[in-house]
Fold each of these.
Amino acid sequence: MNMYLTKKRGLSEIIATLLLLVITITGSAFLALIVQGGGFSASASNPLASAYPAYSIKMMGYDTRDAANLLEISSIDNKFDEKICTASCQGSADNIPTDVASGTEFIVLQIKNVSPNLVYIKSIQINGMLHLWDEQTGGKLFDASASDLSGNYPLNGKFSILQMSNLVQKSDNKLSEDEEIRLVLKLSKSISPDISLSKPIQVLINFGSTRATELVIVSGDTK
């Protein structure tokens, strides 16, 4: 009788251990789904991107002038006011800079993915202020000749992506191996004070890696 009880107890312990193992595995999988689905992963669209080095993104040129046709792109015109207007243009921030009610001004960055991998331009910080990709610009011809809120150009605090060959704004924020693009940023009205000319501008490009690409450019300049 005692032997029977001992065997039964031993079997119960094995079953309990197996059940605990199943619950643990199921719970771990469920938690992983919650984390990924909730956007907690910094590189959910490309899980391997977190290992890419910061120098994967190379600056090929930029234009931060208080001038017209930045980087020779038609209609990207800043107001000739001897500054890059941000905070003092917040009342009509989404208007183009040359409107009667001036909006925040543009800068253009030309970058290249020099890594052998696909990356995503997730965000860009300018002097510590976050700028996000303006999805409504996707697939639309860039045109900043008149104030507009429908995606002809990015709104303040956002950017759009132009290929090198045309002025149609990209419909995604992917950057393929060796691909070179132009980032058109409409500066955030939250950058305070306005950016004076001939001053350093700190640029951080988040492409999904654990470290952003850090760059320093000069206001009122072009390269």
Amino acid sequence: MSKHTTSRHATPPEPVRYVEGFPEHLPGQRHFVCDRLSATLSPTECGVRHGVALGDTRGRHSACRDCPIGRVHAAGLSATREALQAAIQGPGGPRALCVRCGRQSGRLIGQALCVSCYNREREAKEGRNSKGKVPVTYAPLRLRRVGLEMPDGEIRWALFEAQTWLEPLLRGLAAYPGARLHAGQPGDDAPWHEMNETILHAEYRDAEGRPLAMDVEATGNHYAVRYRPALPDELPAPVVAPVSLYDPGFVADWLHHGEEGQTIGEAWRAVGFGCDTCRQGVMQARRRAGVLEVRCTGCGVAEGSDTPPEGPRAALTP
């Protein structure tokens, strides 16, 4: 099998050759020979290793961290020449999802929006669509917050202009490479929900019970947020929902019973939940052969649901 290079100017990489690696024990399952590890792996194993490597701060999995094959397999795709080239050329490569609609796209404008979502936003800003009419169904952008844990353990908060709760998750992970989604709240998590009797709403408080205010600073395509004790007579920071981290089984059941689940088609689409296993990916869902399948874009953990929670679930196979 040919070596794969990560140079942007090198000869296009050779596609991975898949074989039935262990026909006696795992009939029908695809495997390939990994040159970096000198091992035979399944695409799922490769994708999981890549997800682990992204969160490794000690360099123990460095061979998998920047591997385009791992990046492709983590997205649930076959390592074709085109997919590998896309993985080499751009951040996220074939894993690139439109941060707004959650669909996989071969072309992202500004490394964020698919052509359709970009056009809808442009029409809203111009006040007219392609037919010259005022857009009436476009949901305006709002500032939405995401919590992120840096590789050194530091917790940061960021605000992004977004249309959905999925958008700040994907934008945050892209803006802070190596970070993990953080589901906590600012200050001391225990008293954050206490009511302020003066302003009659919940507020964040530190470990000493002092209300927290927030400072906001523009940074690139978002706003960095810092929480601090509020000054006398200063309004406390608004309380917002934390990042939602769940396992694929919960998300599959939630979609199975919710309205959003009825909009899931045969193509993978990301939804607004982070993965509580790796915290470096979001959940994708699709409906295939009547089964609602859910997987993480980061570590590949997956599950499907075609029955209510009390019934059996159909496991997603590679």
Amino acid sequence: MAISMSAAFGSVASLRADVKTRRGARTSVVVVRASGRTAGFKNNARTKHDSYNEHHGPEYMKHAGLDTLPDERARRHAYYDKRTANVQHHFRGSIGMDDWLFRVENKLAQFGFTGDNTIAHTNFCRDEITAPLKNGIHEMFGYAMDVDGLAGFTAAGLTGLGAGMSHSPTEWQTGKERYVFFAMPHIAVDSAGNPGDCIRAGRAGCSHACGALIKLQPKFTELRAGGMQIRPVGSCDAMDPEYSLLESRMLRAVQPSEVPAEGFDLVQVTKLADSVIQQDMEALVRASVDPGKADFAVVTGVQIHSYGHTLDEWHPNMEYICPTSMYVVVNGQRHDINLLEDCPPPAPRQLFALRGGDVVLETPESMPPAVGTYHAAH
């Protein structure tokens, strides 16, 4: 069946009116206005694009766009500040993923970790929406050794870490190796600030992340009630090995009396997962890394997917990271790092230039709702 190009995309004149190029210092910036006959097409295309390609943080989005009038610039900054406030309401200290990648790379480089002498290990959830973070790490260090498991718990164990370390580049003459271990759980916090909610391309209604931690939530209420039988350490369900090990590790991390009467909400479960993942990674690194042979770093946090809260109006998909710990060991000496205090952020223009100055849609028409005032249909 033939498809009319004018029917699908609108007239050439309409498209020309909808695409504007900023001249002068930002010649690479293209702002696409979703309006008129092309609005539905552009919004749907952007939703699809955002779901499978790189997502940016708020500072990148502040720089990109059309700044001809001060009120438009102020409105765009206010919009992205509100999006960040909705994330930080649950996870204080969260910053855009590209901002986080910039700071991590700079700080690691100060200690000698670079893309040509280091191998990265990534320990994230198996969910496909963690891919933008993995891709950002691949840009820094080349393809990483994946030691992933459900919810970001290490499934590969000592054998997996050992395999990755045996793939490391080696230094000329000394043979020194360098590893960076990234480990974190993830959670969705939509543009209205609702924990657990996200929209996935091609799927009707509201989806969720992290599904494994959501499944785990009611188990804490059972634990508090005293009727929960926790699996013995090291045992698992052969048909559901990763989840059963995850459940056992998480339930052993708290005492029944520590669980409130209403149970843990998803944000609390995610923060607990981050704490347990840090402990697990520390134990694995201590058991497997020889600091006399290699320098290494461990970087943890929470990956946060801030996607639109409704399909009725376009809101850009963004990625945030809440940093929780980082340290490097060089020549046997440990150095603890506070990314937020020790590493200055890049300027928005630097982020925009580093990420390639992609096409950016203009600021959404409405501000995101305040936390707790909007809930998507499930």
